[in-house]
Amino acid sequence: MNEYVADFIEYLTQTKNYSVHTATAYETDIRDFIAFYTNYIGADVSLSDIARADTICFRAWLADRARRNLAHKSTARALSSLRGFYKYLARYHNIKNDAIGLISSPKVPRKLSKAIDVSDVEHMHDAIREIDKSEPWIAARDWALVVLIFGCGLRISEALSLKNIDVRGRPNSLRILGKGSKERIVPTLPAVLDAIEKYIKLRPFGNAPDDELFRSIRGLPMSSRMAEKVIEKLRHYLQLPDYVTPHALRHTFATALLAGGADLRSLQELLGHSSLSTTQLYTKVNMAEIINIYEHAHPLADKE
């Protein structure tokens, strides 16, 4: 089975343009099922075994994952990965299995991140200056990253994918390549562009047009983990709760715009959500809290 799994992963990266991270997750999920199935039938799994797997087998696998205390969300993703593998086998290897389509995914509770408290957002700028006072360009970089995610509602990966040429000339909007290589246009704000300009002026390297905008202290492109550590340092320095994460900045952007009158379809487009149901979660947030955030913390708000 190894060759079929390897071919499927290559198909995901080369034909479907999935990221290496996503393809690796698919591979982990599929190999988890194959390892279970091997023990289930007491022999190495062949392609014909894969074709014969029935609902009892699939449900036994899901029950096994539950016994291992794997999260419902992880198991739902694993089942989705396996369905994708079966679709690939049906299309390219004429392997049909109707049983996989009869298995329901575990119900996953949908939780929404908490919005960041107004005063905490206001304190972040001064905290960054204090934390990185020995490296002013790092302080400028970290604030530019925070205000970009907060002001434009980007995912970390989307912010870090920007290149210098993308922000040249203070553009009114950014062209963002999001999940699944879906492209969207996101308006920019003066506060965001001001922070980015200050960072670029202080940055000692990475100034070529096609260089990534955000750089590490050694001059390499900034990684997602490095960006997460920026927020972690702020959280520890300001003694903030664990929910203060980069995604919470994106969440605060979304809830603020909703409070400001944005309709769900527009918000869906700005956030790059593939499903409107994901965006609809924001309607469940306490509106008084949202309005407070919008009026006092968001760069879109007029400050006297």
Task: Offer a quick outline of the entry.
This protein is mainly alpha-helical and 304 residues long. Helix content is 60%, strand content 3%.
Going by CATH, what is the homologous superfamily of the largest domain?
Intergrase catalytic core
How much is the average pLDDT?
Answer: 82
Q: H/E series, N to C?
A: HHHHHHHHHEEHHHHHH
Number of strands: 2
Low-confidence stretches: none
Helix proportion range: 55-70%
The CATH class of the largest domain turns out to be Mainly Alpha
Mind summarizing the main beta sheet?
Answer: 2 strands, antiparallel
CATH topology of the largest domain: hpI Integrase, Chain A
Q: How much is the radius of gyration in Å?
A: 23 Å
SSE order and pairing:
Layout: H1 2-14, H2 20-41, H3 47-52, H4 55-67, H5 72-93, H6 118-131, H7 136-152, H8 156-160, H9 164-167, E1 173-177, E2 183-187, H10 190-202, H11 224-238, H12 246-259, H13 264-271, H14 276-280, H15 287-296
Antiparallel strand pairs: 1-2
Helix pairs in contact: 1-2, 2-5, 6-7, 6-11, 7-10, 7-12, 12-15
What does it look like?
- With 304 residues, the protein is mainly alpha-helical.
- The chain has two domains: 2-102, Tyrosine recombinase, N-terminal domain (DNA polymerase, domain 1, Orthogonal Bundle); 118-296, Orthogonal Bundle (hpI Integrase, Chain A).
- Helices cover 60% and strands 3% of the residues.
- It has 15 helices and two strands.
- The chain has a two-stranded antiparallel ribbon.
- A hairpin with a 5-residue loop joins strand 1 and strand 2 (183-187).
- Helix 2 crosses helix 5 and helix 7 (136-152) runs antiparallel to helix 10.
- The protein starts with a helix and ends in an 8-residue tail after the last helix.
- The model has no long low-confidence stretch (mean pLDDT 82).
